[in-house]
Amino acid sequence: MKNCLIAQSGGPTSVINSSVIGVFEKNLTYKKFDSVYAGINGIEGILNENIVNLSEINKDIVCNLKYTPSSGLGSCRYKLENANSSKEEYIKLFELLSKYHIDTFFYIGGNDSMDTVNKLSIFGKEINSNIKFIGIPKTIDNDLDVMDHTPGFGSAAKFIATTALENSLDADVYNTKNVFIIESMGRDTGWLAASATIARINNRPVVDFIYIPEMPFDKVKFLYDVKKKLEVKNTVTIVVSEGLRDKDGKFISQMNSFGTDKFGHAQLGGVANYLKNLLKQSGVKKVRAVELSTLQRCSMHYASQRDIEEAYNLGEFALENCENIESGYMVAIKRVNNIPYESEVFTLSTSLVANKVKYFPKNWINSECNNVTDEAYEYTLPLIFGEPKIQYENGLPKYVKIK
């Protein structure tokens, strides 16, 4: 008997389940494994033996996960200690994998999750285990190194740009001076906020200013830029990253920080409201602020079909080629052509991605440090194409739950 196990970790995306279904459906065709098991709530759930056999669940229910947002198998933010300092969890995990006759473990996640894949593959080699560990990427932050982009980013970009587009129109209905501020996720990088550059009407950007962590934020210049823009138009639309920093590297929202997560990352929020208050104190009377929060990662109705298919293709490729993919490696997306858009799957060691960050290119930031260049537009636009093929029931999207 030979089985595989798949699990999800970290923050959800609207397309993370597509990778699960890529593995699951491809196995129905190739029958590489007798059963496809799911670890509920990632490594943390597996250690608690919270494991279900997807192959014993109604196929139609499982496959509808492809168009269901969030992590259908549950998630976790669980950091494995280094095996050198604590082997107990590793030993327990390998015993559980052997109990379920797991030959290959597919782990879907970001750079912290790829660190887990890397650690498990190293320990497996040390104990001469034949169990293979393969990573499948996801994150709306688009901050995984080496690869062109990550599944989840295109859909989040589409949601952010649509939100900017629609709200800029809403804010512009009155003949009064006003500012509308949208706060996107992005603790370390500005990919998400920068994606708002694709929001256009009559081929002109609707977002006047974009501020990201890669450019130091200057309060004085910010106030000057906004007031100067208000002299020539009624509505100013701004998009900011939650991880906005000043010239000293201090988070603008540090006063509103909610501590740190299990990986030691600052849990941020409140930049938009901070800037709103800053503008009001400086004399701008009408300012609105919106924090998109989890909306940008769970809105399947705004998802990019291209994003869905690329996430699916990664799972499909990982299953189809699992015998030839080295343990501790992951699948990733390479952009082959931009117009017309074309991509392909390649593999790389998780050691090149784990605990590393791919920052937004500084040469894609304008000279005023208050917006991004056309390169950001050309990079992002191809990733948002296509509407999700969602099933509807009673007027609402028909989603499913496994766990």
TrEMBL record:
Please indicate which residues carry the site annotation Important for catalytic activity and substrate specificity: D112
Sorted keywords for this record are:
Cytoplasm, Glycolysis, Kinase, Magnesium, Metal-binding, Transferase
Q: Which residues of this protein are catalytic?
A: D141
Control of this protein's activity = Non-allosteric.
Give the binding site residues for diphosphate.
Answer: G11
Output the SUPFAM superfamilies linked to this UniProt entry.
Answer: Phosphofructokinase
Which domain of life does the UniProt lineage start with?
Answer: Bacteria
Catalytic activity, EC: 2.7.1.90
Pathway in which this enzyme or protein is active? Carbohydrate degradation; glycolysis; D-glyceraldehyde 3-phosphate and glycerone phosphate from D-glucose: step 3/4
Family of the protein in this entry: Belongs to the phosphofructokinase type A (PFKA) family. PPi-dependent PFK group II subfamily. Clade 'B2' sub-subfamily.
What function is annotated for this protein? Answer: Catalyzes the phosphorylation of D-fructose 6-phosphate, the first committing step of glycolysis. Uses inorganic phosphate (PPi) as phosphoryl donor instead of ATP like common ATP-dependent phosphofructokinases (ATP-PFKs), which renders the reaction reversible, and can thus function both in glycolysis and gluconeogenesis. Consistently, PPi-PFK can replace the enzymes of both the forward (ATP-PFK) and reverse (fructose-bisphosphatase (FBPase)) reactions.
Protein name as catalogued: Pyrophosphate--fructose 6-phosphate 1-phosphotransferase
> Gene encoding it?
pfp
